[in-house]
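Structure tokens please, single chain.
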Amino acid sequence: MSNRHSRQSFLGKDAPWIIENTLVGIAGLGGGGSHIVQQLAHIGFKKYCIFDMDIVEDTNLNRLVGATVEDAVNGINKVDVAERIIYGLQPKAEVFKSKSRWQDVSEKIRQCDLIFGCLDGFSERNQLEAITRRYLIPYIDIGLDVFEAPGEAPRMAGQLILSMPGYACMWCMGFLNNEKLAREAGRYGAAGPNAQVVWGNGVLASNAVGLAVNLITDWTKGLRSPVYLSYDANDLVLKEHPRMEYLDKQLSCPHYPLTAIGDPLFKAV
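Here you go.
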């Protein structure tokens, strides 16, 4: 092991090799995804598939890790900022970047060993989880939102979810449901910008990275079930979501059975 990673030797003697050879995908490189890219590069990950259509704007600079004022002026793509961070820390990294929708290059998603979703809507999360389930890829989802009600202080809240093939999915956990998808579809194009800040995204992203490292190295010997954490930024609390108390964590997922894997097959009728 090189001296560079000697302070994380507790992860195990095989951890450097595992980390360097894990192909990780990140869909969404804004407030949460930019934190994740930076931390993965620091840890030693060298293989990436990164996806984001958007460019850097001045409204991103309050939370987009690695972005500069010059990037916003020049309209640099967020994937280019992420790539710059990666190569700055891992000069020999292998990076596939897409400035298209991740759905348009879904064959790259299939190649990943692990996927992070840092997306804005429920529909996109639903789509991304579906493809990761079909190809037996662990999926880690993070999201943050700010809710305001008249006469009350704003509430900032978020989630961190590990969706593992065969185990409870985001539908089983109650995070996704038809009501949420219908409500989102009903206001399509009129949702407006979501309030976001760097510290809330940082909390969720840091814990998501820690979850991923634990998943691939098994350094704690304790990650054996799905994860659904809720984040209350007002009270600075990240804890297991109450729904998990009523969920059989060993129950096979009925929404994505392990028999429904691989490329879809079509039959003539």
